[in-house]
Here is the input.
Amino acid sequence: MPTRRAQPLPRALVTGLLAFPALAAFGVFTFTPLAAVVRYAGWEWTGTSQPQPVGFANIAALARDADLWASLGVTIAFAAIVLPAFLGLSFAIAFALEGLQIERLIKAVLFAPGLVTVAGSAIAWFLLYDPNFGLVVDLTGLALPWTTQGWAALVYVALFTLWQQTGYGVLIASAALKGVPAGVKEAARLDGASEDQVRRWVVLPLLRPTATFLVVVGTVFALQSYTAVYLLTRGGPLGSTRVLGYYLYETAFERFNLGYASALTLFVLVVAFAVAATQARLLSDRRAAP
Here is the structure.
């Protein structure tokens, strides 16, 4: 009697079974904390006291919090410095390195700061660029007054962020640049286009999806600037570098108002999602335009 061959499982079922462990871990470590934050946002709680339900009072208090809106303004100013510089440097350096024999070496050097812990990098920058006794200041005589001037402190943190993250942007932009079909560029050259015209009218439009990705990543870098601010300036001088992340830290772990800090967390999450979605939509519309 012939044996019946076992029927293979449906492809969708196999895919779901293989993905389930990763999805389960993602759900546990993402949605569980998020649900806890939503719950805590309805409490008046110091972390050790008995929680007191306050409903939507913490959410409503966000609109009246002058420090929150001031920190949002600082974050926007910080992003206005970091985002264009990050995007421009990523593509400019990728174009400049294209075809060089030492391209890989330079990329490795640029990417190296991102492999160093933020704490170690911050200590190094403090010792190098302190206006009073920094090594770079002693050697060059040039000092950025970031300990006393608000604008200088914001520029200082922005330069530190760019130093750490630009190498990543260069790798992404360079990979996209190498993915542009050589035949497309050659056809443009045969039509009489110069190298600058090929880059401007052929290559750059094909890199718009990569630009969208880097804009979103750069925005995330700007919104996640808490660590650099905490280690370098502690929000000073006079709150000039108190970004949203650092204000959230102050509320939760210096003022011990964990209920209101949870409401701030939801606000930051909404802001980050709204900005990223708006940027992606604008760039997508620009790509779809004739």
